[in-house]
Amino acid sequence: QVQLVESGGGLVQPGGSLRLSCAASGISFSISAMSWYRQGPGKQRELVATITPIYTTNYADSVKGRFTISRDNVENTVYLRMNNLNPEDTAVYYCHTFYRGRYYWGQGTQVTVSS
Predict the structure, then answer these.
(1) Rounded distance between C-alpha atoms, residue 9 and residue 72, angstroms
(2) Which is the most buried residue in 15, 52, 108, 114, by most CB within 10 A?
């Protein structure tokens, strides 16, 4: 059974930082590309960042230079370090992978950027 469990969300002031974590189980993590998506209020879900099994990364233009995706193949965990947060980053953040022909999503973790 595939499970993706996010954690690390919360309330942060503009300019602040957070680190999200996604613990994966039930997949061959080291050979799986992992992604973070987000869905803001009244917005469509959008891709934030992806990391491949060979550690290639890709980012949405809106987060380049501020967010960093990384992975730990021993802990089967993918991280999203978010710096210099602004109110437009407010969203539910979801972990995602595509494994054996199916898409999998975590339950999401809320990030709210507000003063």
Answers:
(1) 19
(2) 108
The span from the CA of 25 to the CA of 17, in Å, is 27
User: How far apart (Å, rounded) are the C-alpha atoms in residues 92 and 94?
Assistant: 7
Q: Kind of pairing, strands 10-12 and 109-113?
A: parallel
